[in-house]
Amino acid sequence: MKVKALSLLSLLLALASCRNDAGNGYPFYDGDDPAMYCHDFSRPLGEVLDEVSGMFGVNIEHGKVPASRTVSFAKFRIRPWSLDATMEGLLQSYRVEKNDGGYRVIAMGHHQLSPEQGGAMMGYLAAQYSDKETWEARKAAIRADLKANMGIDKVPEHFEGKVFMSEPREYDGYTVRNLGLEILPGVYCTGNVYSPSSPGEKMPLVLNPNGHYEGGRFHHYIQTRCAMFAQMGCLAVSYDMFAYGHEVMFNEKYHKTALALPYDILCAERLLDYFLKRDDIDTSRVGITGSSGGGSQSFFTTALDDRISLSMPVVMVSSASFGGCTCESGTGVHFSAGLTNNVELAALCAPRPMLLVSDGTDWTQDFPRIDMPYIRRIYSFYGAEDKVANVHFADEVHDYGPSKRQAAYRFLAGQWGIDLSSLTDADGAVDESRCIIEEEDLLKTWGPDYRDMPRDAIHTPGEFAKLIGWEQQKK
Fold first, then answer.
1. Lowest mean pLDDT among 28-37, 74-83, 186-195, 448-457
2. Cβ(175)–Cβ(197) below 8 Å
């Protein structure tokens, strides 16, 4: 594996050779239609009704439905706990709201359920297993489908690509480096590595996928918690989402496509491959945490990979949502083992430690009442109820703000035996005052204007799609 430090020489070489096809404000632009890389999971309505008929054992006459009539996101609309709810989901595509002076027609969100529907889904899932053995069978069935439904089943399991690491920037108690990791030929994961200034013999590893926040991994939420994890003695890695943020390989117009999840999960997998080979990493203490879209990546990665030993998805897990962005639900990941949802996928963490953080103003508002009892039951199959916790902030919003970070620090420290006494202030809170928010240009792996980007980097989604064996439709 080749490791190269970003230097003045590499900068000059990059300036001399790098491709720069600037356009529309992006360093690398192409004119493909993002719709080429989207799935709407459309199926003929008659075909779906026949499937529903067999599922519920009831005759459904649909001879007058035109053969050309299709329904988008068909499988998302099937409610296996109720025929009536399924028929409503399949046949109702729009809802109407009155507003001043008229009406507004709104497409039904395939990824959204009411709290009552979410609760019904949890009841349906819970009825499928009653003990550790039956749950393990369900878990195995879900995992058997996950890679294919995430879109990474055709990707080589092992790939040792180039690694670019900057010189460290020294701060009070920690250092920061910029990282570029090749995850497939010409495809790079970009991020930052936060390390303790005086690391122990073995450092815990904490992955920090970013969510849909302005600036991506440069956001102060991510910088602060990664710097704090490093002061706690961990090596913390933050990294970009697919086509999102201020340092991207692909134009941001491709973020809301089915290519996003394969890229995001591959980044996590390759980061684990790379860092867990290092002699200074404690492979028994490997965590992942993020909020919003980063929360989705956290529980998706945890569900897939047993190398993750602790998970902390923040303001994301809910039976009322499959994920609000195509980057989360644009593949068939929720069709694993027939049909699953984010709560069941998060429960695949059991019996490993997991903290779930929810708030009172988004789709997680009912998590303590509807979803946490289900997850606690799964943990009880292992006698591990003490390994799972929910912290709910009823008066807070959708973020990874100070109080949520405090909960994460405490949970991680408690599970991993980290002494926080030297890092707490007079009020008993973990003291973040030494965490420095760096300027964006300092954090950029490839430097300002992408000057250090490798010459072999690919920038068209078609090239990436070919590498992962992407298919036009996954149903």
1. 28-37
2. yes
How many other C-beta atoms are found inside a 10 Å radius of the C-beta of residue 85?
Answer: 19
pLDDT for residue 270 is more than 50: yes
Contact 353, 320 (CB under 8 A): no
Asked if 324 and 364 touch (Cβ cutoff 8 Å), the reply is no
What does the CA dihedral 98, 102, 103, 104 come to, rounded to 10 degrees?
-110
Partners of 313 in beta bridges? 290
Residue 24 banded pLDDT, cuts 50, 70, 90:
very low
Per-residue pLDDT for 18 more than 50?
no
Q: Which two tokens stand for residue 252?
A: 């941001």
Cβ–Cβ < 8 Å for 360, 394: yes
Tell me which amino acid residue 398 is. H
Total H helices, total E strands in the chain: 15, 15
Q: What is the pLDDT of residue 106?
A: 77
Residue 340: name the closest of 14, 121, 93, 108 by CA. Answer: 121
Instruction: Check: CB of residue 222 under 8 Å from CB of residue 230.
Output: no
Of the listed ranges 34-43, 52-61, 122-131, 432-441, the least confidently predicted one is 34-43
Count CB atoms within 10 A of the CB of residue 291.
Answer: 31
Q: Which pLDDT score, from 0 to 100, does residue 6 have?
A: 45
Residue 251 has pLDDT above 90, yes or no: no
Beta-sheet pairing, 174-184 with 163-165: antiparallel
- Cβ distance 142 to 344 under 8 Å? yes
Residue 211 CA to residue 220 CA, distance in Å, equals: 12
pLDDT of 13 reads 37
Is the CB of residue 43 less than 8 Å from the CB of residue 70?
yes
Identify the pLDDT of residue 327. Answer: 77
Domain residue extents for the chain: 31-109, 163-450
Neighbours of 330 (CB within 10 A): 23
Report whether the peptide linkage leading into residue 351 is cis, meaning its omega lies within 30 degrees of zero: yes
DSSP secondary structure letters along 166-185: PPPEEETTEEEEEEEEEEET
Give Cα separations from 276 to 282, 299, 406 (angstroms).
Answer: 8, 19, 27
pLDDT at 8 over 90: no
- In this structure, the number of other CB atoms found within 10 A of the CB of residue 425 comes to 10
Strands 235-239 and 174-184: unpaired
Phi-psi region of 10 (alpha: psi -120 to 50; beta: other; left: phi over 0): alpha
CB neighbours of residue 93 within 10 Å? 14
Q: CATH: 3.40.50.2000, 3.40.50.1820, 4.10.520.10, 3.40.190.10. Which one for 163-450? A: 3.40.50.1820
Q: If pLDDT is split at 50, 70 and 90, which confidence band does 4 have?
A: very low
